[in-house]
């Protein structure tokens, strides 16, 4: 007998925004998934791809978890202190939870890049994917990608119960609202001091202001 599926949501979350939060909650409702672990990736402090420390990114996630109890923060990748492939994190989770279907939430941009993920075939043997819509032009992008179409032909399901009755191997594309927002866009807007209230929860925005994150002259806070 399998346990209830666990959602997993990995990313940089630099910073976390409404495009991370609301499509994921909507997809979780559509698939009847009640818990989602947010797992921020570790980024070395000397690398320019994260503009604030891992601890700040984690703290901002914790603030979102306080408001949406479907989410909890899982700091395992940050705590390792070295960059980790998703496949390694998933192998660890699978060993901890042998009877729990694992459902990896991603945006369509990540689905389109699935082939570039380290050991992506192994990943599909460890978890399902729940895909949230992201960009308006994505139906064309997905339809024109013949390699992706071949994977979808093998793995896609429209039955959310497949995510509950099998441990891994399905791709469920959830009919979520498209929120065309990204962390990089928000980092630019914060640097230019333009309004971001629409896309960043107020407690996270207060945290950003309090710690003077994403300022014009920031290197790494
Ligand atoms: P950046 O702009 O810095 O590249 P990002 O906004 O894409 O960041 P990530 O933390 O890299 O955010 O994304 C983590 C996951 O969230 C990915 O699977 C991504 O596809 C998904 N995601 C991010 N933004 C959205 C969005 N607006 N709608 C749906 N999914 C999203």
Automatic annotation (TrEMBL):
Catalytic activity reported: nicotinate beta-D-ribonucleotide + ATP + H(+) = deamido-NAD(+) + diphosphate
InterPro entries according to UniProt: Cyt_trans-like, NadD/NMNAT, Rossmann-like_a/b/a_fold
Pathway(s) it belongs to: Cofactor biosynthesis; NAD(+) biosynthesis; deamido-NAD(+) from nicotinate D-ribonucleotide: step 1/1
Residues in coiled coil: none
Keywords, in A-Z order: ATP-binding, NAD, Nucleotide-binding, Nucleotidyltransferase, Pyridine nucleotide biosynthesis, Transferase
Pfam families with a match to the protein in the record: CTP_transf_like
Domain Cytidyltransferase-like per the UniProt entry, residue ranges: 8-188
Transmembrane segments: none
Any GO MF annotation of the entry: nicotinate-nucleotide adenylyltransferase activity
EC nos: 2.7.7.18
Function: Catalyzes the reversible adenylation of nicotinate mononucleotide (NaMN) to nicotinic acid adenine dinucleotide (NaAD).
Family: Belongs to the NadD family.
Name this polypeptide is given: Probable nicotinate-nucleotide adenylyltransferase
Protein's organism: Paraglaciecola aquimarina
Gene: nadD
């Amino acid at each position: 007998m399998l346990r209830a599926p666990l959602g997993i949501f990995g990313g940089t979350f630099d910073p976390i925004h409404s495009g991370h939060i609301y499509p994921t909650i909507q997809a979780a409702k559509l698939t009847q998934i009640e818990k989602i672990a947010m797992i921020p990736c570790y980024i070395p402090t000397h690398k320019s791809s994260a503009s604030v420390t891992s601890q700040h990114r984690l703290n901002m996630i914790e603030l979102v978890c306080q408001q949406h109890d479907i989410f909890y923060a899982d700091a395992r990748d940050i705590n390792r202190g070295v960059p980790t492939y998703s496949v390694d994190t998933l192998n660890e989770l699978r060993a901890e939870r042998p009877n729990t279907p694992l459902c990896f939430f991603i945006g369509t941009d990540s689905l389109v890049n699935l082939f570039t993920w380290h050991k992506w075939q192994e990943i599909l043997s460890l978890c399902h994917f729940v895909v949230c819509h992201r960009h308006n032009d994505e139906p064309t992008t997905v339809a024109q990608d013949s390699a992706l179409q071949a994977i979808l032909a093998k793995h896609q399901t429209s039955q959310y119960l497949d995510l509950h009755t099998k441990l891994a191997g399905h791709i469920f594309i959830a009919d979520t609202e498209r929120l065309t927002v990204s962390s990089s866009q928000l980092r630019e807007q914060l640097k230019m001091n333009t309004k971001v209230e629409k896309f960043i929860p107020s407690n996270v925005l207060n945290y950003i202001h309090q710690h003077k994150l994403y300022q014009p002259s920031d290197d790494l806070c």
